[in-house]
Amino acid sequence: xxxxxxxxxxxxxxxxxxxxxxxxxxxxxxxxxxxxxxxxxxxxxxxxxxxxxxxxxxxxxxxxxxxxxxxxxxxxxxxxxxxxxxxxxxxxxxxxxxxxxxxxxxxxxxxxxxxxxxxxxxxxxxxxxxxxxxxxxxxxxxxxxxxxxxxxxxxxxxxxxxxxxxxxxxxxxxxxxxxxxxxxxxxxxxxxxxxxxxxxx
Length: 201
What we know:
This protein is about 40% helix and about 15% strand.
């Protein structure tokens, strides 16, 4: 294992919201060999979630945090996971995600997205990877990753919100989630390279 990839085992990622985006992002990171995940969601698994979220029929009715932690540990028994079954607010976000190297915004509703991005950028030092525009059956290549600032990366087409006739679907949500996971990986590897370079100076 190279020193840079070794950094993944020492990295911490926070995932806010464990629906279609968050459950897919967390699983991608667990498969990469991430050292620690902090996951948070207040909701329970519903049958309507199963078309795009990483849960199973026998987990319907379980808190999403509990169900996803169980699934993640089956994939990577070595990953350390801190689960928080809670509704995230500007007051508790800094405490829950304290120590995270990167935070993934994985909410469905625009007001929740805005709340998390503003809270992280104003009150924390970690970068955040957020999503805007991923609904429907549109072209996968319309979903792109853009760096808005040194601490804010945005994934999506920036336009396509869920609405009647334009649902959230597993393929497009999955594309966006894996863009998000890849952006997080790039941030962590960049941080690792910087640490390695400093150690040789």
